[in-house]
């Protein structure tokens, strides 16, 4: 995978070795820990054809295993797999993986809903070193990326545009965002074989709460419980008007 990386582009700083991403892979030896290893999540259905094009470009210039299509795999499944593997490697004495985990950053390409999805997943996982999230505007409104300085328009899907965005991610200042969560319960219907809301139809901001034990306070007998995460941000804009005189 390293053959994709051109040292003149500085792409090695963003590279994640395959053995970190795919459990039981052969260990790769790198001279230094990358300063800005990224995990890239692309909503291939966003932005018309742009999402698919962006997916191909990222996979062409980085390790294809560190670039994920959200239409094929949910981010919570991906991150759980990677971080469980990181913990196993750390326990086996792999210092490289432990240092790499502290430098992780996430890039998510999609609309506001996709960005909120990743924010919720990272929050729910309660990681020791939660990675900062950079958002590539690829949706309709793109209010969240705009509020944090990433702009409202897609920066481009060609190689040079993607490399330029990676450089911005490396230089970006980490900022905090306020979040709040709710629990929503709906009484389970006993007169029908259908659930009140099919799990596949839930918005990404809501997650089904799994019953961990009989004493789990998040669950009540006879109710379906959902947990939702929401993100507060604020932005301002200006516009000017011209006075028109009619005669």
UniProtKB/TrEMBL annotation:
<dbReference type="GO" id="GO:0016020">
    <property type="term" value="C:membrane"/>
</dbReference>
<dbReference type="InterPro" id="IPR017438">
    <property type="entry name" value="ATP-NAD_kinase_N"/>
</dbReference>
<dbReference type="GO" id="GO:0004143">
    <property type="term" value="F:ATP-dependent diacylglycerol kinase activity"/>
</dbReference>
<keyword id="KW-0808">Transferase</keyword>
<dbReference type="InterPro" id="IPR001206">
    <property type="entry name" value="Diacylglycerol_kinase_cat_dom"/>
</dbReference>
<keyword id="KW-0418">Kinase</keyword>
<dbReference type="Pfam" id="PF00781">
    <property type="entry name" value="DAGK_cat"/>
</dbReference>
<feature type="domain" description="DAGKc">
    <location>
        <begin position="33"/>
        <end position="186"/>
    </location>
</feature>
<protein>
    <submittedName>
        <fullName>Kinase</fullName>
    </submittedName>
</protein>
<dbReference type="InterPro" id="IPR016064">
    <property type="entry name" value="NAD/diacylglycerol_kinase_sf"/>
</dbReference>
<dbReference type="InterPro" id="IPR037607">
    <property type="entry name" value="DGK"/>
</dbReference>
<dbReference type="GO" id="GO:0007165">
    <property type="term" value="P:signal transduction"/>
</dbReference>
